[in-house]
Every structure is written in C-alpha cells, then in structure tokens.
Amino acid sequence: MNALNTAAHGDSAPLRFRSLGGWVERPGDLQPALKGHEHADVIVIGAGFAGLSTALELKALGADVIVLEQEFAGFGASGRNAGYLLGSMGIECEVFVNRVGVEQARQFVRFYDEAVNYVEGRLTTLGIDCDYTPSGVIRAAVHPGQEKRLRKNMELGQTLGSVTRFVDRAQMRARGIPPAFLFGTEQRGGTLNPGKYVSGLRRAAIEAGVKLYERTPLLSFSEGQVITCKTAHGRASAPAMVLATNAYTPQLGVLRNKVAAIRVSAIETQPLSTEQLAALGWKGREGIITPHYTMESHRLTAHGTLVLTVKQLGYAYGSKTPNIPDHGAYAALAQVLRERFPALQGLGIQHCWSGYVSGAYDFLPVVGAMGAKQNIFYTTGCSGHGLATQSLMGSLFAGQINGKAPELLAALQHRTPSMLPEPFQWCAIQSAFAAAKLLDAWTDRKVRKDNAMKD
Ligand SMILES: Cc1cc2nc3c(=O)[nH]c(=O)nc-3n(C[C@H](O)[C@H](O)[C@H](O)COP(=O)(O)OP(=O)(O)OC[C@H]3O[C@@H](n4cnc5c(N)ncnc54)[C@H](O)[C@@H]3O)c2cc1C
135 alpha carbon to ligand 1 midpoint, in Å? Predict the structure, then answer.
C-alpha cells in the first residue's frame, strides 16, 4: 500500500493506493502452491467469479477439479469491482443488435438477466453473506440532454426482453436519491461487497474439496486429449481445461486478437457521519450508474462509505496488466465526487485502486472452446459487467463439460471481430477513450453551467 501525492486530487488528506483493491486482503489460509504432478477431471485457471463458480458447479457434479491461481482467489477484477449485481440494463443494446441482429441480441439480454437470478440463488444456496442489498440499479442522467439516449436504450432493451422502467424526476426526489441524478431507467439487482462474495466462493470451493493452488501461475500448457499445465514447481493434467483468466488471458498468448485488457479505477471515501448520511437521504441505497460514454458509478457500502468507479479508462500497450496506480483516473473520480455530492464537501477519500476487465471491439462476451480436441473452454470479454455473467458461466461450462450442452451457451456463439496488431491497437483504443472523454466533458460542462446559473 503506497501513499500517493495528494496534489492530484486537491484533497489535504493522503490518498492511499491499495494494490489489492478496497475489499480484500491476502487470505490468512493461503492455499499451497502446486508441487509435483497432479491429475484431475478438469483444470480451471484463475480463481475469480468465473473460475470459482465453474469449480464449484463441476465439483457438485462429482468431478475432481484443480484450480490454479497466480496469486490468491479474488486477486483479479472479482476482488476489485464496484459490486453491482446488474443485468441487461448495463449493456448498450444498440451495439449488440447492430452486431448480431435482434434474435441473438435477445439471447444476450437473457444471458445478462438470468445471471442476476443465478447469483442471487447462489448466495442463498452457498450461504454467502456479502451485504447484498437488492435495491435495484438506476442508470441516472446528470443532464437533461442525456434523456434521449437513456430512453432509446431502455426502449430497445424492452423489445429484446429487458425489464426496465423509467424513473422520472418526481419519483427520484421522492425516493431521496441525491439531486445530481435527475431521472433514470431502473432494473432489478443491487449492490454487494464483491470481496465478501469472492471470499465466500473461495471458502465454499475449499470446503467442497476443490484442489485450489494459490501463488501458482500457469506458465504454459500442451493441447491434446489430455492437457498438461506447467507451473513453476509442478504439473497438472486433465482431459479438459477452463481458462477463467479474463483480462489476463492475452498474456497467456491466447485470444490476443479478440480481447483487450482495460484498466478500470475506483475511489472509496471515508465513512460518512450519521449526520452526513441523514442529509444525503438515499434511503433505498440504489446503485447508480450514469449514461456517460465512459460511465460513472456511485454507491453506498454497508460500512457507510461511498465507492465511485470508472470515469476514465486505461490501456497499457500489448494488453499488459501492471498493478500500478492510475493518478489521472483517481483525480477525475475525486472531481466527480465533489461535483455530484456538493453536500459532502470535505469528505475525505480513504483509498483508491485499479483493476482490469477485458473487452472485445463489439463489447459482446467472448465465450467458447478451442484446441484440437475443443476441450479448452474460455470466458472473457464481459467488459465491465462480469459480476453476474462470469458467475453464471460456471454453471454453463459445468453443463457443457458434463455433456449437457446448455442452449444458452450455444446461443452466445458469434464471430468476435479481430483486434488490430500493436501499435495500431494502442492508437485505436486511446482514440476511442479520447473521443468518449470529449463527449463526456461536454455534458459535464453543461451540468456545471446549469448549476452555476442556479447558485
Ligand atoms: C474497478 C472495477 C469495477 C467493476 N465494477 C463492476 C460491477 O460493479 N459489476 C459488474 O458486473 N462488473 C464489474 N466489474 C467487472 C467484473 O469485476 C469482472 O467482469 C469480473 O470480476 C470478472 O471475473 P473473472 O473471474 O472472469 O475474472 P478475474 O476476477 O479477473 O479473475 C481472473 C483470475 O485469473 C488469475 N490469473 C491470471 N493469469 C493467471 C495465470 N497465468 N495463472 C493462474 N491464474 C491466473 C488472476 O489472478 C485472477 O484471479 C468491475 C471491474 C473493475 C476492475
């Protein structure tokens, strides 16, 4: 944990960078690294929502499962996200329809929405207490000019089967939602503590008898009827493997031309005082996201802090994933905190962190099987909305490996566009980020101007 130069966010208290994110610590019962040669029915690489859910579902079907995790379960995005359990409202329906047509877009909407039910069910079945608040999530405008885009996405979503409703200004105020958020579209779901969720999955997997090897990066693997995975001190082999390495997948030399690793950042405030919480209203604690091109997310936590994420994304050349601070993103989020919550002036920022998600050019999930024997399964590319979907993938993969071929998994198959080689990819992604930033800055300037006129 490092103290950052505070000049960047204009706050007087030191802003701490947490290299593991704001929700998890290295577990006290770190599982041993793989040594020697182990055999199993399935090897899962990566212990986030996808890897742990897959291992648990396979174990329930009686399979012998090995999980190899380079650090510890929850080290990746699963331990660093904002904790929104959100379905199809989080996606840009228009992009999906343009890419795969109405019929298949309906299946993607179903995939995102069923995933919310799946996670809610798993929290109960596995007895995971992760402060889940089924408050609903609102995609809320900060300027009237965002209404057209909001409504358009909602209406298209509804034709695809997404259950979303419009919340007008009067309803927003009646519910005590902070006044910066004018009106919005709402969907069921809510917020949870992702650290507690992923740690709960980890505990359940260990108790179920999944062989979890932590501090065990996969170094290489061989394809064939039997797949052999090489690690620093051992080998594991199995007739099937699941790559649940998400944004880290391109570094394995896999899917490099299909997904890019995108850095997403977060800040967490000091706990709000009882008076600040009361003044804020926001009794329903709805998770809020905005319809900016690079969205903002705003939520209260069960421990009384505010967590804000995104606003500015990052991309490191070659889809690298350095675990380093992103000062520019934290400064942008600190400014957003001051502007959206003027009543909380002086509220300190406790710490900040970043993590990596993966994205394809068409923003669609990248799910499938590869290898000469089609026995290497992968799931990546859920952009910034993988809490629910990557969990559901565990159930779909377990069905597939068990010979059941779930129809929802088949419905997700489509052609992912190829990415550009470097340095063109770096240029293309930076240009897309810059364009989104310009459009969002224009909206935010209009918000400031309107507010100045009110004062
Ligand atoms: C700041 C932030 C906010 C977000 N907010 C939300 C949100 O509110 N809602 C939402 O739905 N989504 C959100 N997301 C996205 C969500 O967190 C991800 O989509 C999801 O966690 C992906 O889960 P996963 O299991 O596929 O990948 P990960 O959690 O990234 O797991 C991959 C694992 O693979 C391991 N690994 C990598 N390489 C190797 C190797 N060679 N050998 C062994 N192990 C390896 C990694 O250490 C890691 O633990 C957010 C992401 C970030 C970063």
Answer: 23
